[in-house]
Amino acid sequence: MNIDGRNTLACITNIPKDQPTTDLVIYPLPHMFVVKDLVPDMTYFYKQYASIKPWLQRKDTLDPSKEILQSPEDRKKLDGLYECILCACCSTACPSYWWNQDVYLGPSVLLQAYRWMADSRDQHLSERLAQMENPFSAYRCHTIMNCTRTCPKHLNPGNAIAQIKLLLAKN
Asked: What angle do CA 134, 137, 140 make, to 5 degrees?
């Protein structure tokens, strides 16, 4: 929701009891269609999320009953990425997403895309990067950083997008 002009989660928003009663201004997430009352239509957002194939992709065939182990160092690379709860606060705070949400994946989805690129167990980095080779992927980000300022989980989608740009430049 947008509470007093800031995209956030209503369930963690503090309403101080010791202050005089003031009116809170509450709106649904901006720049999204509204289903009813304060409920935004997240259908297109979740379609974009699905487009990045947010699951572990392997080229080899392994026994599905066995784990794919990861070193503690490789696991640490995922900190700040896997915690995203797909609330869309960051995406709806992004001017590039406002004007191009039909083609621009937005900060939340790009954060998740990088989460899978950074996972040492995934074997489809080149395919994932190929999907980003267009002007409406990571390159639509202008590093305004509204996404990072508004994230209720204190994640940094802007940094994840910068890391995607670095990977694209290397390949």
From this structure: 100
Report the length, in residues, of the chain.
171
> Is residue 146 exposed (0-12), middle (13-18) or buried (19+ Cβ within 10 Å)?
buried
Paired with 3 in beta bridges are 6, 26
Q: Is residue 92 within 8 Å of 149, Cβ to Cβ?
A: no
In tens, the pLDDT along 98-150 reads 999 889 999 999 999 999 999 999 999 999 999 999 988 899 999 999 999 99
Judge residue 92's burial from the number of C-beta atoms within 10 Å of its C-beta, 0-12 exposed, 13-18 middle, 19 or more buried: buried
Is residue 154 within 8 Å of 12, Cβ to Cβ?
no
Question: How are strands ordered across the β-sheet holding 6-7?
Answer: 6-7, 2-3, 26-27
Cα–Cα distance measured from residue 114 to residue 105, given in angstroms and rounded to the nearest whole number: 12
Q: How far is CA 51 from the centre of its chain?
A: 13
Chain-centroid distance, C-alpha 37: 24
**pLDDT of the residue at 18:** 72
The answer, yes or no, to whether residue 15 has pLDDT greater than 90, is no
Residues 66-70: what's their mean pLDDT?
91
Query: Could you tell me how far CA 20 lies from the centroid of its own chain?
Result: 36
